[in-house]
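Quick one, probably user error.
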């Protein structure tokens, strides 16, 4: 699949398609492309990942809550 973003890319593809060595070309290096911004990549978690992050936080909160309540109960049993 080829995605053309600019008119310049479309014109270049048309020009290269007319050449005789159309199917015998070497692959161009990815380093020759220019990113549109300083940081072209941005990571956004998928909805499933948000669910897993939320479940992990709930589990941590549950473990901390149960440990605190056990420690409070243990302190009261000793008469403190």
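Nope, works fine. Designed sequence:
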């Amino acid at each position: 699949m080829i995605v053309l973003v600019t008119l310049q890319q479309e014109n270049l593809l048309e020009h290269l398609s007319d050449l005789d060595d159309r199917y015998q070309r070497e692959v161009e290096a990815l380093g020759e492309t220019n990113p549109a911004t300083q940081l072209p990549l941005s990571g956004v978690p998928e909805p499933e990942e948000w669910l897993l992050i939320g479940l992990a936080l709930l589990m941590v909160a549950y473990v901390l809550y149960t440990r605190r309540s056990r420690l409070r109960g243990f302190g009261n049993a000793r008469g403190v």
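The longest helix spans residues 47-77.
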